[in-house]
């Protein structure tokens, strides 16, 4: 294959998305970049997803298989380890879909910046009927305006591990990763429900990464999004932070800001956990207004309950 036309491996994991899988697959096979190998891996769907996948596979000639349900991370790892041969790897969930020039734009961008571990772009937000809900005008990055002002054309040279560990601002469907990065970093953590964030953090700790400031995909919001399971997400977030605690403590302000956010979130979602975090970190009381605010919120809540 010519150097200027590197092969891109596309992995589409599917689980019970019969309503959306056809649109997802169509958005991949209709890409303007032709040098693709496509793997649609059905993770034991119990609806009609795989029947749709099989019909489209006959029409377009991509690889399709189904296996007993093993979870998203295990499915992705299987696709990468057993099938992906491309220089670059892209993953798109079966309920999301791409803008037609997504791969073409990213390959051109990546070839100019070969030192990057991964790149990502911006995304439109759509509902279950593919109607546009909003543009993702602002990525949820701390100090976003400063981040935005530092963009050089479509390239941001200063994306950091610290920004990413603070919160996941990367739309997974817009990511492109060098295949060789997995050999260095490893594969998706099968113990985590936020396997994408975990992966981006691990890569960012070892490699540079960058935003391509263009809309490249459509992220679908619907009732069965895993991000709606707040308890599961919280457990996975705690697990992620625990993994990096030693590294973060070397950067004290970053660690403390993450802790403040965890306390604030827990005041709403898990008051017992919030109390535990507050009382084990009282040394922060006079240092941070946000800490005192959370302390006050929790204290007033408990006092109100006692009076009733």
From TrEMBL:
Coiled coil: none
Gene3D superfamilies: Spore Coat Polysaccharide Biosynthesis Protein SpsA, Chain A
Domain of life assignment: Bacteria
Residues annotated as signal peptide: none
Pfam families recorded: Glycos_transf_2
Domain Glycosyltransferase 2-like: 9-185
InterPro entries with a match to the protein in the record: Glyco_trans_2-like, Nucleotide-diphossugar_trans
Annotated protein name in UniProt: Glycosyltransferase 2-like domain-containing protein
Species in which this protein is naturally found: Olivibacter ginsenosidimutans
């Amino acid at each position: 294959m010519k150097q200027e036309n590197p092969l891109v491996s596309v992995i589409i994991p599917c689980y019970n998305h019969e309503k959306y899988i056809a649109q997802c697959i169509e958005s991949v096979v209709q890409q303007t970049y032709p040098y693709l190998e496509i793997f649609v891996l059905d993770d034991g769907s119990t609806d009609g997803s795989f029947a749709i996948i099989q019909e489209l596979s006959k029409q377009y000639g991509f690889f399709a298989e189904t296996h007993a349900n093993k979870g998203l991370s295990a499915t992705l790892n299987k696709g990468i380890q057993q099938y992906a041969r491309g220089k670059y790897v892209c993953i798109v969930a079966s309920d999301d879909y791409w803008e037609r020039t997504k791969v073409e734009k990213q390959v051109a961008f990546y070839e100019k910046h070969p030192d990057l571990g991964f790149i990502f772009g911006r995304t439109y937000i759509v509902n279950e009927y593919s109607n546009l809900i909003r543009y993702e005008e602002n990525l949820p990055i701390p100090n976003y305006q400063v981040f935005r002002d530092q963009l050089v054309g479509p390239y941001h040279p200063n994306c950091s591990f610290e920004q990413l560990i603070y919160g996941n601002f990367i739309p997974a469907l817009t990511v492109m990763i060098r295949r060789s990065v997995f050999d260095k970093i490893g594969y998706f953590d099968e113990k985590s429900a936020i396997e994408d964030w975990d992966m981006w953090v691990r890569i960012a700790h070892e490699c540079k990464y960058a935003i391509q400031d263009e809309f490249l995909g459509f992220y679908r919001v619907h009732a069965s999004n895993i991000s709606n399971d707040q308890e599961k997400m919280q457990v996975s977030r705690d697990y992620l932070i625990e993994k990096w605690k030693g590294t973060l403590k070397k950067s004290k302000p970053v660690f403390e800001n993450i802790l403040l956010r965890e306390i604030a979130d827990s005041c709403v979602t898990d008051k017992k956990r919030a109390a535990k975090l507050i009382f084990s970190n009282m040394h922060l009381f006079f240092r941070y207004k946000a800490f005192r605010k959370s302390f006050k919120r929790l204290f007033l809540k408990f006092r109100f309950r006692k009076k009733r």
